[in-house]
């Protein structure tokens, strides 16, 4: 795997996960609707900062592990591939099992998450508090750490500097996230209607789940 191929492959996987509505998306959307664009962008930057911290921390640990043991590298690679298949499989099952009515209710609840934390505050303190809210939300989400620890080894080519490559991949994910959040913030009301449409959520789960399972199988079968 070349460095260019690694970046493109990771960007594809991370991009798919970025657009799946979750807690981060819900907080940014709610902030945009309740406090305006400036606070929403500050929240998004806080989330991005947290993601970068997670990525660098994971890259540091992975760098030590990969340098110490080739066997540990292979084990972590298998775990990462299994993680992708498991995550994609869950999305496929959810898309197949969930009725349109249940999907509508779940999506509406997600879009309304963190309502209390998005209450207006004094303008002078609004932006720092919004940034802090985004940062804290991301740092306290262990799924982000699991994602980086499981995924980074899959996209570090042989001979590449592990720490530098891992940090660069985390930055790619960060940039994708900011692009996504920018679109949500600029079209907040339209985005809310989209994410509360259960049929759209089911379709996104089905497509993303299929792609993630495919990536997982490909990574597990790859030689290097």
TrEMBL record:
The protein's name: LysE family translocator
Pfam families per the UniProt record, alphabetical: LysE
Domain of life: Bacteria
UniProt key word Membrane: yes
GO molecular function: amino acid transmembrane transporter activity
Bilayer-spanning residue ranges: 6-29, 41-66, 72-93
Entry GO terms, CC: plasma membrane
Record keywords, A-Z: Cell membrane, Membrane, Transmembrane, Transmembrane helix
Subcellular compartments: Cell membrane
Protein topology in the membrane: Multi-pass membrane protein
Organism lineage: Bacteria, Bacillati, Actinomycetota, Actinomycetes, Catenulisporales
């Amino acid at each position: 795997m070349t460095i260019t191929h690694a970046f493109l492959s990771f960007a594809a996987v991370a991009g798919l996960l970025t657009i799946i509505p979750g807690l981060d998306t819900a907080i940014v959307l709610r902030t945009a609707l309740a406090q305006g664009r400036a606070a929403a962008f500050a929240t998004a930057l806080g989330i991005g900062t947290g993601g970068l911290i997670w990525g660098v921390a994971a890259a540091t640990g992975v760098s030590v592990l990969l340098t110490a043991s080739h066997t540990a590298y292979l084990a972590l690679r298998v775990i990462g591939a299994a993680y992708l298949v498991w995550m994609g499989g869950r999305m496929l099952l959810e898309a197949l099992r969930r009725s349109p009515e249940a999907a509508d209710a779940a999506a509406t609840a997600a879009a309304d998450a963190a309502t209390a934390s998005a209450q207006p505050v004094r303008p002078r303190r609004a932006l720092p508090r919004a940034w802090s809210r985004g940062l804290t939300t991301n740092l306290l989400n262990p799924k982000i750490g699991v994602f980086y620890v499981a995924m980074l080894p899959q996209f570090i080519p042989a001979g590449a500097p592990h720490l530098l490559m891992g940090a660069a991949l985390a930055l790619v994910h960060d940039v994708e996230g900011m692009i996504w959040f920018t679109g949500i913030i600029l079209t907040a009301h339209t985005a809310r209607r989209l994410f509360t449409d259960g049929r759209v959520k089911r379709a996104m789960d089905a497509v993303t789940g299929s792609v993630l399972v495919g990536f997982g199988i490909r990574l597990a079968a790859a030689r290097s």
